[in-house]
Amino acid sequence: MINIEIDGKHIESESGSTIIQAAHSAGIAIPHFCYHKKLSIAANCRMCLVQVEKAPKPLPACATPVSEGMKVFTVSEQAVKAQKGVMEFLLINHPLDCPICDQGGECQLQDLAVGYGGVASRYAEAKRVVTHKDIGPLVSAEEMSRCINCTRCVRFGQEIAGVMELGQAFRGEHAEIMSFVSSTVDSELSGNMIDLCPVGALTSKPFRYSARAWELSRRRSISPHDSLGSNLAVQVKGNQVMRVLPVENEAINECWLSDRDRFSYTALNVPERLTKPMIKQGGKWQEVEWQTALEYISHGLRDIAKRGGAEQIGALATPNSTLEEMYLLQKLLRGLGSNNVDFRLRQSDFSADGKQAGAPWLGMAVADINQADRFLLVGSFLRKDHPLLASRIRQAVKRGAQANVLHSTDDDLLMAVANKSIVAPSAMVSVLAQILQALATEKKARLDGAVQALVQAGSPSAEAVAIAKNLAGGQHPAILLGNFAQQHPQAAQLQLLAQHIAALCNAKFGFMGEAANSLGGHLAQAVPFAGGKAGMNATAMLAAPRKAYLLLNVEAELDTHNPQQALAAMYAADMVVAMSAYKHFASDYADVMLPIAPFTETSGTFVNTEGRVQSFNGTVKPLGEARPAWKVLRVLGNMLNVEGFDHDSSEAVRDEALGGMDVSSKLNNTLGGTEVRGLGTEQAPAHHSAPGPQSSALSGLQRVADVPIYSSDAMVRRAPPLQATHDALPPSAAMHGDELAKLGLKPGDMVKASQGEGSVRLSVVLDNRLPRGVVRVAAGHALTAKMGAMFGTISVERA
Amino acid sequence: MLSQPIQEKLDRELKKYPVDQKQSAVMSALRFVQDEKGWIAPEDMADVAAYLGMAQMAVYEVASFYHMYNLKPMGKHTLTVCTNLPCQLSGAADTVAHLKTRLGIGLGEVTADGKFGLREGECMGACVDAPMFTVNNRKLCGRLTAEKIDQILAELSTEQGAKP
After folding, report:
1. Domain presence at residue B49
2. Is the Cβ pair B42, A181 closer than 8 Å?
């Protein structure tokens, strides 16, 4: 520790820290623009000039390291003179257009100009003009004359987002921030540049000119999309959500927000919102009162239970539903006598059900990711599925950690990857087993009998050995299974292998949860194996159609592992109740549509992937006659005379669901060792056609299905600005050049991609980073909703 | 794709730098492109970025920072006239005016036949010879008078004619 003095105040500061850091930690404000605690030091705005004893001239506080006995004066005559001088220069070219600037009222330059600016400018010449730019549908760069060239946005791209999309071109007075040849900014974290911009140069395109900062009330909430559980400030004006900003939480989202979390609010008031309960009568949809709709449902459910047994009822929820909603849904079902409830809609391997010691979680705290020094990322579209976890891993890699990747696609992670093995989905188990085998050799350990069966004879591939050696060389390795690994038809085998690899190299091992409440769903017992007799899982109850389905937020053709199967089951059912915030394709197969509230209009709880229970309140009143789903389910429970549906608040539901539970004791990724022995392909559920580890047994191409970032749930699918981004381009059929050559195709051609009974027309994309024998066709999109399972064989022919 | 000769020159250049710091060669790469084409198109910058593993924007930053890189076609012979103070005091304004009249173009423009481009430059560090211009950033021509400029232009024109 170093002793310094700032403005006469004695401060202890860490060696190597800068004056501005020491001052901030002591609560002393120093004016600044280019400095940001999460970004590198640029020291180009000069606003933080301070006087330092014995220094001949003012020094920039952001770039001056503290030294023992240093005396700093931040408000001395010399310091203030320097700061005022800098401000005068900054204002020379800055337009005086605060009244029409979207940043007005929350502008750092405006605020500091009040303190340090002159009453009038001495500069009488022409101000410089910087042309406006179009950098995409999210970030507006329409008033670049306001830019003070602090380069925060540039450094954010380089350092946090991992890709330098904005840069400072030209120099001196002509320097301007721009993208390369008017290309768009496509980073999934781009919205943070809006927060970082200290002036009104980069502003939010969807929010522009819709409200002033002082008109908005700020309400805290939790992101309903990815499993990180980012903390949100929902800003509201007149019962309407106007925008969403991050709330700083160093343990979760730091001060960032992914674009999905930031801009999904634009889907809250779209015309497709369902605002009245509707019943289909004689093939025609009619708006009805809540009472009528709920009576119709309870009557129908009772009738079906009486005639066919309660097992004829199935309930499906998306993992974006709240803990309370999922808890009441399963309670309702179990009260009726059915255990057919599930939220793992895109999962296809349920063989680990009941064999896992606890609920699947990250296996570590989110903040622990920064400490890991080796990563093995198994089956993850990391950047798109977990934008901010990806950023954390990127930061760790920058500090010297090494990342290893096992996946079926080789998308650029925008970080250095030490070793990678990019193989077809069917080979993933085999490669992971080879890594285990190589690691055992490296560690001179004997393999457990449970996984011996999965390790094939022969020596492991060079890639597997390299990954194993890399992991063995780490002090704090982390093995993370992504969405693709969880949706994989051999997910349990991947899990078991990862568990053994983790044990051998003393790694932490866990799942990066698929969605906001993937962990909460387990805690809410919204899984078929949670209560007494095991019910049917998500796939089973679609493979063997039920007579009645309760759908919570679910769009059957977009949110499930096998849309063909899901739709067939919906059409075959006698009654489908679609609880959704939106009018969607359920109008074709459902009998009742109930308008429920999205996360901004209900209170609830999400449990993030590290096991953090985060409750939130509603921020606005529900639109139209929409109601919070937990209330709908409670009333439905009452109507069906199910015991214990007398909660008067979502907190009461949460407290019952968690029942004073110590959540951390419920988290455990360990698969019972011997029980899964010999869990081979022959025991895998029969519904999927994915082949076993032997890739030679294949005919046709294997599908690799990602869920694009802006197709992940009902809300983002309807957010117009997100849908206008590069990431939301319609799905294509991407293949390796060798496969294209075999089929005589060239990029841009149209093909007919067929799977099961369905086929769709897609344009061909060349991706030589894909393994041979696969075709990448995204799921979760209307264009590919006629396809079958996310894993499986697919045939491609010229259309 | 960068042309074969450029790639060869660039590979030689890259040997000067650590393997993980290929971007150190960006200025050389841009120079090679300009030597070959006379200017650097955005596509060339993208090629350089791909070759050196840099962000395209980072290449653009460098290319736009240094005024000796031509971001648009500047003719076969680019004449860059120094207009900084010592040259101005020695008659750089007359040099520019004479060139403008002789070539019939303004600063930053190219003659219709694509032979000559005219641009303004910064101090060339040889003020003793002021006023001066460079030809294609390589040949320094100083102590300019109207006659000397005419002579240089005539030489450059015939050189152009001599070589296909």
Report:
1. yes
2. yes
